[in-house]
Design goal:
3-stranded mixed sheet, 5 helices, alpha/beta, globular
Length: about 210
């Protein structure tokens, strides 16, 4: 499970039932607005001054609090270093997802094809190697990038394990061909079959 896949506020209390066995996070050492992704991501705010010292301090403090809250809830957190300036928003690692549960007991790491080069730069070899060592299986979909096709992990997919399906809004970040490949490769490993549920999503700007 990655940084934004976890609940952002986890309280330190024994009454909470842990929903993850571990969390992977990326330290915001060089977090900046991704100008490449800003062009077609309506959820990004270009008005924020990401180059100020105040912004850096705020982001690092929030990240430290996030990690502390998760650990205080009894969930181990592995913190990786941000690859560098060429991966400005690596703290939101949509390039991988992972699962270990009843469907695939040995666990599976999924490497996702990303739309933009700046997001692909987040796949630092040492981070990939570390993640692969923690799971029995790996589904590598990154070859689709050579054809300009993407399926951006948790930025595009909701993994609904109780319903045994992947919920995916169709977009340039979730191409049908890659979705089909994910389902095919997942079901080769899974004890129970999963399916993709795709739909069209709109907001007030459409």
């Amino acid at each position: 499970m990655s940084l934004t896949a976890a609940v952002m506020k986890v309280r330190s209390t024994s009454t909470i039932q842990p929903f993850a066995s571990q969390v992977f996070a990326v330290h915001p050492s060089a977090f900046r607005c991704n100008q490449e992704a800003l062009a077609d991501n309506v959820f990004m705010d270009a008005a924020i001054d990401c180059d100020s010292a105040e912004f850096d301090e705020k982001v690092k403090a929030q990240h430290a609090e996030f990690v502390s809250n998760i650990r205080n809830a009894g969930i181990p957190v592995t913190v990786y270093q941000q690859p560098g300036d060429a991966a400005p928003d690596a703290i939101f690692p949509d390039w991988f997802t992972c699962y270990k549960g009843d469907a695939i007991p040995g666990g599976v790491l999924i490497l996702h094809p990303m739309k933009y080069l700046s997001r692909r730069n987040e796949r630092a070899p040492e981070i990939v190697a570390s993640l692969k060592a923690k799971f029995k299986h790996c589904i590598d979909l990154t070859e689709f990038e050579k054809r300009g096709l993407a399926l951006e992990g948790k930025g595009a997919i909701v993994f609904h394990h109780r319903a045994r399906c992947f919920l995916i809004a169709r977009s340039e970040r979730s191409c049908p061909e890659v979705i089909d490949a994910l389902v095919t490769e997942w079901n080769k490993l899974s004890k129970v079959p999963y399916r993709a549920v795709t739909f069209e999503a709109r907001d007030t700007s459409d």
